[in-house]
Amino acid sequence: MQIIVLPGLDGDGNLAQPFCDALRGHSVTALNYPDHLTSYADLVPWVLAQLPKGPVTLIAQSFSGPVAAQLVQQQSAKIDAVVYVATFAMRPRRIPKGAVRAARYLPITSGFMIKLMQPWITGQWSDAAFLAQFSQSLSRVKSETLIARLRAVLSVDVRSHITHATVPSIYLRASCDRLVPRRASTAFSNVVTVEGPHFLLQTVPTEAAAVVADFLNTLSVDRAP
């Protein structure tokens, strides 16, 4: 089975490598989003062009949930299943437009900001190696890119896509997600809570991989002749 992992707001698929390694027995590829692609309208066709031949399973983290939902609507015959991870169907929180504009003047990609945000990023699952990697990842992304993607999040609404989807799916809800609130999962079906923070695939990769593997195995059994 071919599995494609879609990244979070930073666009760095390499952050999911521990999860990819833990999902043994499958061909797993994590995509990296180009910096210049910031809107969902641009990202959906780009991801579609990266998909390999044959059916695939999408694993969509956070920012990429709406990308997967739109791909399912457009290419349901190509997509075997979707795993939504700590994501949303519409803006997860209300953020004043002024706050988004002000963000351009903040050092949001700096190591200092990462340390400041640590309670929201990893909480009690804090891992120095991951935080260092995440800091390096953000340092390679332009602030303008992150802000533009944040704007895309604030205006997206794919609830109808998810409601009418016929592709099997599962939603991994982080038990201690301080970025995407619990209510964001109500738009999805087959919700499973995984103990961990927002960055599930990075901080508890083995546990997340076990849930995904069980889901995929169940699909295989159901489809067996």
TrEMBL record:
InterPro entries: AB_hydrolase_1, AB_hydrolase_fold. Pfam families: Abhydrolase_6. Residues 23-208 form the AB hydrolase-1 domain. It comes from the Bacteria. Gene3D superfamilies: alpha/beta hydrolase (3.40.50.1820). This is Pimeloyl-ACP methyl ester carboxylesterase. Transmembrane segments: none annotated. Signal peptide: none annotated.
